[in-house]
Amino acid sequence: MSAGTRRARQSGTASLELVIVAPFLLALLMLIIAFGRYAQTENLIDQAARDAARAATAQNERAKVEPIVQGVVSDSMVDAPPSCRSSAQAEPPQLTSGAFRVPDPNNPDAIESVTVTVTCSLDLRDLAALPLQTVEISRSFTSPLDRYRGYQ
Predict the structure, then answer these.
(1) Most exposed of 26, 108, 135, 137 (fewest Cβ within 10 Å)?
(2) Is 110 in contact with 98 (CB distance < 8 Å)?
(3) Considering the domain boundaries, does residue 150 fall inside one?
(4) Which range of residues forms the domain containing residue 28?
């Protein structure tokens, strides 16, 4: 067998190996992109819940809490993927029973708080190489109310 024939067979083998391995590499790349998009969106949802809960505890009136929470969540989702941005919503904030009332001076250990839960649907179907679907992401954050501030 001559050296030229051997090289031709080896170059054909390399092309065949590339054809076999390329789809797996492409699928792996798409999977890495999907995990990255999920992690980024999860972080944005978590930050939106934190920001909304903290903004809620800065209010002096119970009635102002829900509009503030909704506004902060919509502002926080500007950098989210389009599917999540359009589906992001905050559930009604959960307030402890004494939240936004004058604290009981006989119970200094009582801690009132606001809990905000934010959810969105992240669509991963645009990563065509993988059979991925829409993923629901939900995060909650609880922020305590300052006991020694003004209440109305």
Answers:
(1) 108
(2) yes
(3) no
(4) 3-144
